[in-house]
Amino acid sequence: MKARVTVMLKEGVLDPQGEAVKHALNSLKYNKVKSVRQGKVIEIGIDEISEERANKSIREMCEKLLANTVIESYEIEII
Amino acid sequence: MRAAVIIFPGSNCDRDLLSALRFAGHETISIWHKETELPKNIDLIAIPGGFSFGDYLRCGAIAAKSPIFKEVIKHIDRGGYALGICNGFQILTEAGILPGILQQNVGTKFISKAIDLRVNNTSSTFTHNYSSNYIISIPIAHHEGNYFASADDLKKLHDRNCIAFEYLDNPNGASDNIAGILSENHRVLGMMPHPERHIENAHGCQDGYPFFEGLLATS
Fold it and tell me: Could you tell me which of B180, B147, B184 has the C-alpha nearest to residue B165?
C-alpha cells in the first residue's frame, strides 16, 4: 500500500520560501500570482492490512516525526 | 564540572565547543549519537551546532529521535543541565524539551556575522557571570534561526524569566527578538548564537568566556 503525506505550514505562519517564489513568479511577469505557499510531499510504502490501519499508523508518524505541529499541518492520502 | 558533547553525523561545531569548555577549565567527553548510555557523573550535556543529518526533514528533527537522545531526555527529566547551541537549540525544540521551533530566517538568507545580544536573565548557571542588560557580541551562523512560538508559550517564557538572550538588532525575524531561551527550571538553555566562537584572545572578542567560565559554578 502507498500513501502520500502532504505537510504544509499552518495558515498565518510566515513562509519566507513561498514569498521568495511568489516574487520570482511576479518578476517573470506572472502578475496574477497573489500568493505562494511551499510545503513538502512524502510518499510512504507500507505493509498494512487495511487503509484504516495504514491511516492510523501514518497519523502517528506525522505527530512523532514527519510534521512539527507547532507550525505545520499534514494531510494523508492513500494512493 | 564534567560536560558531555553529543556528536551527530553533520555536527560541525563539536570541536569548538569541546575546546571552549576545556579552555574554561571543564572536563569533557565526546559521545557519538548511536550510544545508548551516558557515562556516569555527567554534569552538563552540550549539543553542538552544525547540520545534523543534513538538516533533512526539518533542522534537528532526526537527531531528536536518535538513540542517545532518550538518555539526554532522562538526564534533563532528572533535573540535569543541558545546553544546545544553534543546531543544538533546534534539536532541543524538536525533542519537545524547549517550546517553539526555529524557522527559516525571514530574509531567506544564511547569516554569518557577529551580532549584539542583551543578557536578559542573569540568574541561570549559563548567564550569572553577566550583569543585567549587559550587551555582548557573539557570532551567529544560521539559516533557520527565526524563533517562533505560540502566544501562550511566549507569555510563559516572559513570565517565568526564561528569555536568556535577546537580539538588539533582530537579524532573522525571531519572535520578541529571542536569541536564546531557558527551560522552566532554568537548567536547559537553547540559543542560536555561538558563544564558543568568542572565547580566546585570538578570536578577537572574549564575550563568550564568562558564559563557559560560570557553568555550574555557584551563582
Answer: B180
> Which chain B positions have a beta carbon within 8 Å of A16's beta carbon?
103-108, 146, 173
Does residue B183 sit in helix, strand or coil?
A: coil
**What's the whole-model pTM score?**
0.94
How many inter-chain contacts (A to B, CB under 8 Å) are there? 35
| ipTM of this complex | 0.83
Look at residue B219 and tell me whether its pLDDT is greater than 60. no
The partner residue sitting opposite A17, judged by closest CB among B61, B108, B173, is B108
What domains can you pick out in chain B, each with its CATH number? 2-213 (3.40.50.880)
- CB count, 10 Å around CB of B23? 16
- Sorted by where each starts, the structural domains of chain A and their CATH numbers stand as 2-78 (3.30.1280.10)
**Whole-angstrom distance, CA of residue B186 vs CA of residue B5:** 19
Nearest Cα neighbor of B121 from B36, B55, B49, B214 is B214
